[in-house]
Specification:
The protein is mainly β. It has a single domain, classed as Immunoglobulin-like (Sandwich). Helix content is 0%, strand content 52%. It has no helices and eleven strands. The protein has a six-stranded mixed β-sheet, with no helix packed on it. Strand 10 and strand 11 form a beta hairpin. It is globular, with a radius of gyration of 14 Å.
Length: 145
């Protein structure tokens, strides 16, 4: 599935799902990209062991990543990152039906206006072999005003 988020209001875009997960993405203050949220709601019968998020080349960095559940409780995990991707390995597998919020904070201001940012998300689930592509979140960065 592809999730479209368009505009500068920070409103969540349309969420779509397939047999694996539902993805939804929004950005607070899209013009400065100070905080990026990615919601992942597992809907399959397999718990999530880890998530991999591909980082668009236009995203010049971030200072912190926080993972919480639907109640706002922090999910303990090991996070490894490079310029191309972030891998979140959960200390305990995330049960089916849970919703995760992944917050990237301290994202520098984007200087390339009217660009489309794509965040690919894949996961490793218990009982299934290898990384499974879950979807792509797309953000249209508006023209600077």
């Amino acid at each position: 599935p592809v999730i479209e988020t368009v505009g500068s209001t920070g409103e969540a875009g349309e969420c779509q799902s397939d047999a694996q997960v539902a993805l939804c993405l929004s950005q607070c203050n899209l013009s400065s990209l100070s905080l990026l949220h990615i919601w992942v709601a597992p809907v399959a019968n397999h718990a999530l062991k880890n998530l991999t998020i591909s980082i668009p080349s236009q995203m010049e960095g971030y200072s912190n990543i926080q993972v919480t559940d639907q109640t706002g409780k922090a999910i303990t995990s090991k996070i490894s990152a490079n310029k191309q991707q972030v891998v979140i390995a959960f200390d305990q597998a995330v049960t089916p039906g849970s919703t995760l919020e992944i917050d990237f904070s301290g994202v520098p201001q984007i200087t390339l206006w009217n660009q489309v940012l794509e965040y690919g998300v894949s996961a490793e689930q218990e009982g299934l072999a290898g990384q499974i592509p879950l979807g792509t979140a797309r953000v249209q960065v508006p023209f600077s005003s």
